[in-house]
Write a structure and sequence with these properties.
The strands form 8 sheets. An 8-stranded parallel beta sheet has the order 9-6-5-4-3-2-1-10. It is built from 24 helices and 31 strands. By secondary structure, it is of the alpha/beta class. α9 (110-126) packs antiparallel against α19, α10 runs parallel beside α12 (218-225) and α20 (423-431) crosses α24 (555-563). The structure holds alpha-D-glucopyranose. Alpha-D-glucopyranose binds at residues 59, 89, 133, 188, 267-268, 496.
């Protein structure tokens, strides 16, 4: 439809019809009994019966047959037969679930994010979906926050690279949303949600404007520049004003500074929650503040539906504000081609053929193997590394994650655990059914009840049953030369509303590790986690640690591929693993301070703790391979440059081992002196390098001025002359340094 026709349509719509386009309800409002629903949650939300059948979009429903029928019924009743939008959280896969975003970030390879999003879009599109609430691009530094599982980590540059890649994966590089098997991407949560105080979900966010701009806003800008069709507001306040009613954040930064002209949707009930924040008087006031802030769609509350028309009629809200919001929603529907083809790609036949197809499974298996991070890998008495597993060495496979298919993340809301490949299934395919196994314990211990996305999860085991499992594990461990222990967090401990004050493994699993270690100290730990954990005891009691995050549908296959050496680990930490929770938030790009403490020194009046080190247990960017790759000193081709010039930093990397290895040289820059204090290091480049045994390769990074600027509190890019330090290494703790002067 042409823009002119859209404007004509808008001009022909009644005020209430416009308002209904700004309402998003969950599917049960449509498929439940109208009477019951109209008197149920809808009524409390102030939503009237006609609203229920007229809302402009649905949250949380999928299935080609179902959505075609919903669309038909809706359009038949809609006065102008405007099609509705179907939106869903397709975070890291639709039915073929890819590794969680924190894992994808660990690949240090945005192409993995793009591929995962492309395949997710294909599977989502044939089920009839039009929009996904992904990628979540919030920068995260606090391992206590459960939603770190949905992010790509603590670095603005890495997050921005992934934000761009994932948006392109969902929408296509031309951003032609009428293209087959493409869906609209909604980046979230704008803005600064990952900075929640004390890592407690939905908590207050307080930070300086330079930090906000420099660290937290970059990835949203990258997603918007990549063409993201929607942005979602965040639950938190920004400078004391809830994001969903924050005019400065939404109109000055998002719309004006970032030039975003797509649809802005609130997070779930976030407009109404401005009442509970103590900023809006009531739902009417919340609706007024929300539309004035430029929020187009009110997700799952009756604020807009029950109040906006009245606010306009009472002269308190200019109808132009409603018109601009409705026009953006109509434009999105038009970009998706829904006026011509309301079903878009919904297709029952393709649904069966494409979902969980073998090519998709293979892609998920390959992707997962590239996200795993090898944190330690000692050498056994025979001079062999513990990993990859040596043939002929009697190995026991122990732990609650051997048989578990619960290896996605809590946000894999459309995924099915029974389609996940467990480690056990992959072991049987590799070693036959004859392998030493013991469960060891439940994931969370005795009689534990924990709220999950799909309701309460209960682990009913008793102390007696746990003791029995421990003894079985000890007996199996005694009988083996080495033990691979599969441990980790429960799925319900990841994602939204899953903040934790302690970040060790569940105690029942720590105890299993101790019990096994007593009878056999040749332990390799495979760790399923959605967040950095305090691994001090795990590291002390194990010879090797492989972090596999939440690996998704093909997790079991990918894990056995890496354990057996069919694939080599090449992941790097996208988030620091703290020494303990007392160190949190800990991030590699912190400021130097006026009293920097040199690692390993104990001078008192320095910025340090009395009882723990400043350094994390495992730093950002860290990860081992199965071989040994050396790096030369970094060389610069010049010692100074001007703003329009460039400097090339070169290192030579060489594979000293006897197996192939994939390493990730990383470029960090430090602005030694500037008008505001600058981080000790900032990631400005990385490259995946695959080296055959004995192979050497020169890795070159071109340093240009955009790597040297910083953003001030008003959003201006600032470039200041002076000395810059260049670091190149295999992780952020590298001291391989050279300097130059910007003239
Ligand atoms: C949730 C989440 C958001 C999600 C939305 C819709 O509360 O904060 O990430 O997209 O609701 O499910």
């Amino acid at each position: 439809m042409t823009q002119e026709k859209l404007l004509e349509l808008l001009g022909d719509m009644s005020l209430q019809e416009k308002v209904d386009q700004l309402l998003q309800l969950h599917e049960f409002f449509y498929t439940g009994n109208q009477e019951e629903v109209a008197t149920g949650p809808a009524r409390e939300m102030g939503i009237t019966e006609e609203d229920i059948t007229q809302a402009g979009s649905i949250l949380g429903s999928y299935g080609a047959k179902k959505l075609k029928k919903l669309q038909d019924d809706y359009m038949a009743k809609q006065p102008h037969h405007i099609p509705m939008l179907f939106m869903m959280d397709v975070i890291h896969g639709m039915k073929t679930i890819f590794p969680a975003p924190i894992a994808q970030g660990a690949a240090f390879d945005p192409k993995i994010g793009k591929m995962a999003a492309d395949i997710a879009a294909r599977e989502a599109a044939v089920t009839g979906l039009h929009v996904t609430f992904s990628p979540m691009v919030d920068l995260v530094r606090d391992a206590r926050w459960g939603r770190v599982v949905e992010s790509t980590g603590e670095d603005p540059y890495l997050n921005a690279e992934y934000a761009k890649a994932i948006v392109e994966g969902f929408q296509g590089e031309n951003n032609d949303l009428t293209e087959k098997f493409k869906i609209a991407s909604c980046i979230k949560h704008f803005a600064g949600y990952g900075g929640a105080e004390a890592g407690r979900d939905y908590n207050t966010v307080e930070m300086s404007r330079p930090a906000f701009r420099e660290y937290y806003l970059k990835s949203y800008k990258a997603g918007i520049d990549a063409g993201a069709a929607l942005v979602m507001t965040s639950f938190n306040t920004v400078e004391g004003v809830p994001a969903s009613v924050n005019k400065w954040l939404m109109r000055d930064i998002l719309r004006k500074d970032f030039g975003f002209d797509g649809v802005l949707i609130s997070d779930y009930a976030a407009i109404e929650e401005s009442i509970y924040h103590g900023v809006s008087e009531d739902k009417r006031d919340a609706a007024k503040k929300g539309i004035e802030a430029g929020v187009d769609i009110d997700m799952m509350t009756g604020c807009y539906a029950a109040n906006l028309a009245k606010l306009v009629e009472d002269g308190e809200v200019d109808e132009k504000l409603v018109d601009e919001a409705v026009l953006r929603v109509l434009e999105l529907k038009n970009k998706l081609g829904l006026f011509e083809n309301p079903y878009k790609d919904a297709d029952e036949k393709l649904e069966k053929e494409m979902i969980l197809s073998m090519p998709h499974r293979i892609a998920a298996r390959e992707a997962a193997a590239r996200t795993f991070v090898l944190l330690k890998n000692e050498t056994d008495d025979g001079g062999f590394k513990y990993l990859p597993l040596k043939e002929g060495k009697k190995t026991a496979f122990v732990g609650p994650f051997v048989e578990s298919q619960s290896i996605m993340s809590a946000w894999a809301v459309t995924g099915d655990e029974d389609s996940c490949v467990s480690v056990a299934q992959a072991l049987r395919e590799t070693f036959g059914s004859k392998y030493l196994y013991a469960k060891g314990c439940e994931i969370l211990g005795d009689d534990v009840k924990i709220p999950g996305f799909r309701g309460m999860v209960h682990y009913p085991s008793t102390p007696e049953e746990t003791e029995k499992l421990y003894v079985e594990a000890e007996n199996v461990a005694k009988d083996a030369e080495q033990v691979v222990l599969f441990l980790g967090e429960d799925t319900t401990e990841t994602g939204e509303a899953a903040s934790k004050g302690f970040i060790e493994l569940p105690e029942v699993q720590q105890e299993l590790l101790r019990r096994v270690h007593k009878v056999n100290d040749n332990i390799i730990v495979v760790l399923f986690t959605g967040r950095p954990l305090d691994l001090r005891e795990v590291s002390e009691l194990s010879k090797s640690i492989l972090v596999v995050w939440r690996p998704g549908t093909e997790g079991g296959h990918a894990i056995v591929d890496v354990l057996t050496g069919k694939r080599g680990p090449c992941g790097k930490l996208p988030m620091s693993f703290p020494y303990c929770v007392g160190q949190v938030p800990v991030h590699y790009d912190s400021l130097v301070t006026g009293r920097p403490a040199e690692p390993g020194t104990t001078e008192k009046f320095k910025s340090r703790y009395l009882d723990i080190p400043n350094e994390p247990l495992y730093p950002f960017g860290f990860g081992l391979t199965y071989t040994t790759i050396a790096m030369s000193d970094v060389k610069l081709d010049k010692s100074e440059m001007t703003a329009d010039g460039k400097i090339t930093a070169t290192v030579t990397v060489k594979n000293l081992g006897d197996v192939v290895g994939v390493e990730t040289p990383q470029l960090y820059i430090h602005d030694v002196k500037a008008s505001i204090a600058r981080p000790a290091k900032q990631l400005k480049g990385f490259e995946k390098v695959e080296l055959m045994p004995g192979n050497a390769f020169d890795v070159k990074f071109e340093i240009t001025k955009d790597m040297l600027t910083f953003v001030d509190g008003e959003g201006n890019e600032v470039l200041e002359k002076g000395e810059f330090e260049v670091f190149v290494g295999f992780d952020s703790a590298t001291t391989n340094k050279a300097s130059f002067v910007l003239k």
